[in-house]
């Protein structure tokens, strides 16, 4: 018996990317997954304004926003103590895979970083993984966001690449994978 299907109908998404072509492409991919039309924008300030007035179940943003580093926007989202959107899953898309940029997004509180250009299959895998994999929310003096440790969690594509990796069945039975609170209505 395979994984249950993921129903993304009704999932609200904020998509932030400065490139018009990429915004359109990713928005069409999301609609193809059954999501309602995402709210799209091109700057971090627009994203902040939107989140101050509207809720989003998922934020997908580019790694290099024109008006602020993506890490600053992620930190701002995570520091909104009295707002439910501080727990929103955040996927960062970046054409630059330098370790410092990936680390900055991860250390700011992003759930995942994916390389641009992203295929529909890869984006769906990442959204599914974020929705189905419960990660505790950590708050310390210098970090707010999902637990950055991935031990005992299968990779997003389900393919084990190291001899030391556990099989998905071992991880699921030992970890009790649950749907993340923000997207639990989607599962």
Topology:
Layout: E1 13-16, H1 20-32, E2 39-41, H2 44-53, E3 58-62, H3 70-78, E4 90-94, H4 99-108, E5 112-115, H5 120-132, E6 137-139, E7 144-146, H6 168-175
Parallel strand pairs: 1-2, 1-3, 3-4, 4-5
Antiparallel strand pairs: 6-7
Describe it for me?
This protein is α/β, with parallel strands linked by helices and 187 residues long. It has a single domain (13-183), classed as Response regulator (Rossmann fold, 3-Layer(aba) Sandwich). Helix content is 34%, strand content 14%. The protein contains 6 helices and 7 strands, in the order βαβαβαβαβαββα. The chain has helices spanning 20-32, 44-53, 70-78, 99-108, 120-132, 168-175; strands at 13-16, 39-41, 58-62, 90-94, 112-115, 137-139, 144-146. A 5-stranded parallel beta sheet has the order 2-1-3-4-5, with helices on both faces. Helix 2 packs parallel to helix 3 (70-78) and helix 3 runs parallel beside helix 4 (99-108). The longest helix is centred in the first third of the chain and has 13 residues, at 20-32. Residues 167-182 have low confidence and may be disordered.
């Amino acid at each position: 018996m395979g994984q249950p299907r993921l129903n993304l109908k009704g999932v609200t998404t904020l998509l932030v990317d400065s490139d018009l072509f990429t915004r359109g492409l990713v928005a069409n991919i999301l609609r193809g997954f059954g999501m309602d039309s995402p709210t799209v924008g091109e700057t971090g300030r627009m994203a902040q304004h939107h989140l101050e007035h509207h809720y989003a179940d998922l934020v997908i943003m580019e790694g290099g926003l024109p008006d602020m580093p993506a890490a600053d926007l992620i930190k701002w989202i995570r520091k909104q103590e009295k707002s439910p959107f501080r727990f929103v899953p955040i996927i960062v898309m970046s054409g630059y895979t330098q370790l410092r940029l990936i680390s900055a997004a991860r250390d700011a509180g992003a759930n995942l970083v994916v390389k641009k250009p992203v295929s529909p299959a890869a984006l769906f895998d990442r959204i599914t993984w974020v929705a189905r994999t419960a990660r505790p929310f950590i708050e310390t003096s210098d970090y707010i966001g999902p637990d950055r440790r991935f031990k005992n969690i299968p990779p997003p594509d389900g393919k084990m690449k190291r001899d030391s990796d556990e099989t998905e069945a071992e991880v699921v039975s030992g970890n009790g994978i649950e749907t993340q609170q923000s997207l639990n209505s989607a599962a």
